[in-house]
Design a protein that fits this description.
There is one protein chain. By secondary structure, the chain is mostly helical. It has one domain: Amino acid/polyamine transporter I (Up-down Bundle), CATH 1.20.1740.10. Helix content is about 80%, strand content about 0%. Helix 3 runs antiparallel to helix 9, helix 6 packs across helix 12 and helix 7 packs across helix 13. The longest helix is centred in the last third of the chain and has 35 residues. The chain is globular.
C-alpha cells in the first residue's frame, strides 16, 4: 500500500505546477481583497470562473499526453497566424505578470526575513534564487520541490482559516453581489482574469506534461488528467480559503491596502494576527510567502519555456541555449520594470489582469477547436458533456467581456 502511495506521489507533477503557478496574486492578493471588500459576496465568481475555465485548462495536459506534443505544436497545425498571435500576446504580458508576482513575493520576504526593506533588492534576490534553481535542474527540481511547497501551503492556509473561524467573533453574510460601479466591475474582471490563472497557462501545462512523460513513461492521458484535477481542486479550495480570510478578518475593518509591497504584506499579516493572535504570525507568513514564491518560480519557468518552443516552431530554431536566453531576458526585463516603474505597478497589474480576461476567449476557442478536431485522437476528444461545458464557458467569457466593455 505504501509503495502504491509513493508511486502516485511520484506521478503527481504538472498539476501541482499548475496549482503553484495559479495560487499567487489571484489568491493571496485578489481573493483576499475580494473578501476584504465584498465579504463572501463574490463566492459565485470564484466557483463560476473555475467551472467555465476548467475544460480549457484541462485540454492542455489532455492534448499533450494524447499526442506527445504541446499545445503550441497544435496551434501551428491550426495555422501559423495563431502561433504568431500567441507570441506577441505573451511577449506583451509576460514581463508584467512576472513583475507582479515578484514584487508581492519581495514584500513578504521583507516582513519574514528583514535584511533590507527595499523591495527592488528583494526582487533581485528572489529572481536570482529562482534562476539558480531552474538553471541547475530546470524541470526536475521544479517538479520535485513543488510537491512540498503545495503541501506546506495547503496545511498552513487551511490551519489559518480554521483558527480564524474559531477565534473571530463577528457575523457575516453569504449574500452574493454583482458589482455595479465601474471600479468594482473592473476589480471583478481583474479577479476573474487571473482566477485561478490566465487560460494561456494551459500551454505551460502541456509542456510540463511532456517533460514529465520523459522520465515517467507510465504518465498516460488518464493519469495526466487525474494529476490536473488534483491541482485544480487545490486552487478552488485555497481560493475559498483566502476569500474567507479576507472576509472574516478584513471585511468592515476600516483598513485600506497600501500600494507599497512591503507595507501591503505587513498589513496583510498584521490584520490576520490582530484577530487570531500573534502566535499565528509565522504560520500566516509562511503560507503567504510559500504561495508567492511557488508562483514566482513557476512563472519564471513557464514563459521562457513557451517562448522557446514558439521560436523553435516559427523559425525552426535548434538552439539549445534558447531557454536560457528567454529566462535571463525575462529576469532582466522584470528587474528593469520594478526599478523604474515601481510607482505604476498597481496600474500595470490591473491592466495585465484585465487583458488576461479579455484575451481568455481567444485561448478558450483555439484550445477547444484543437482538442475537438482531427489533430487529437478520437478517444481523447471531448465527451458531449465536456463539449456542452466548453460552449457554456465560451459564452460566459465572451458575455462578461461584452458586459465589461459596455460599462467602461
Amino acid at each position: 500500500m505504501n509503495s502504491k502511495k509513493s508511486n502516485i506521489f511520484k506521478l503527481l507533477g504538472p498539476g501541482l505546477l499548475f496549482a503553484g503557478a495559479s495560487i499567487g496574486v489571484s489568491h493571496l492578493v485578489q481573493s483576499t481583497r475580494a473578501g476584504a471588500d465584498f465579504g463572501f459576496g463574490l463566492i459565485w465568481a470564484l466557483f463560476l470562473v473555475h467551472l467555465f475555465k476548467y475544460p480549457f485548462f484541462q485540454y492542455g495536459p489532455r492534448y499533450a499526453s494524447a499526442t506527445g506534443e504541446s499545445l503550441l505544436d497544435g496551434y501551428l497545425k491550426l495555422g501559423k497566424g495563431v502561433l504568431i498571435i500567441y507570441f506577441f500576446l505573451n511577449l506583451i504580458l509576460m514581463f508584467t505578470l512576472q513583475a507582479a508576482v515578484t514584487i508581492v513575493t519581495a514584500g513578504l520576504a521583507i516582513n519574514l526575513f528583514g535584511l533590507t526593506d527595499d523591495p527592488v533588492t528583494w526582487s533581485i534576490i528572489v529572481t536570482l534564487v529562482g534562476l539558480l534553481i531552474l538553471l541547475r535542474g530546470e524541470y526536475k527540481i521544479l517538479d520535485n520541490s513543488m510537491k512540498f511547497i503545495i503541501i506546506i501551503l495547503t496545511i498552513t492556509t487551511v490551519s489559518a482559516v480554521l483558527v480564524t473561524i474559531f477565534n473571530v467573533d463577528k457575523s457575516f453574510s453569504f449574500t452574493q453581489i454583482l458589482p455595479q460601479e465601474t471600479l468594482e466591475i473592473s476589480f471583478l474582471i481583474a479577479f476573474m482574469g487571473w482566477m485561478p490563472a490566465p487560460i494561456e497557462i494551459s500551454i505551460w501545462h502541456s509542456l510540463w506534461t511532456i517533460e514529465k512523460k520523459k522520465d515517467h513513461k507510465e504518465f498516460d492521458t488518464k493519469k495526466s488528467i487525474l494529476d490536473f484535477n488534483i491541482g485544480y481542486v487545490g486552487t478552488i479550495l485555497l481560493g475559498f480559503c483566502f476569500i474567507s480570510l479576507g472576509a472574516l478578518v478584513m471585511f468592515d475593518s476600516g483598513e485600506n491596502f497600501s500600494p507599497n509591497a512591503g507595507q501591503f504584506a505587513q498589513q496583510l499579516i498584521s490584520l490576520y494576527t490582530k484577530n487570531i493572535g500573534t502566535s499565528m504570525y509565522l504560520v500566516i507568513g509562511i503560507a503567504a510567502f510559500t504561495t508567492m514564491f511557488s508562483t514566482t518560480l513557476t512563472t519564471l519557468d513557464g514563459s521562457p519555456r513557451t517562448m522557446t518552443r514558439t521560436v523553435q516552431l516559427l523559425w525552426n530554431s535548434k538552439s539549445k541555449k534558447m531557454y536560457w536566453f528567454w529566462i535571463i531576458f525575462l529576469s532582466l526585463g522584470t528587474i528593469i520594470i520594478l526599478k523604474y516603474f515601481m510607482s505604476e505597478m498597481g496600474l500595470l497589474v490591473k491592466i495585465a489582469t484585465i487583458l488576461s480576461f479579455l484575451t481568455a476567449p481567444f485561448y478558450a476557442i483555439i484550445n477547444f477547436i484543437l482538442i475537438s478536431g482531427r489533430h487529437t485522437p478520437k478517444e481523447w476528444r471531448p465527451s458531449l458533456g465536456m463539449k456542452i461545458l466548453s460552449y457554456l464557458g465560451i459564452i460566459f467569457l465572451v458575455g462578461f467581456n461584452v458586459w465589461y466593455l459596455m460599462n467602461l
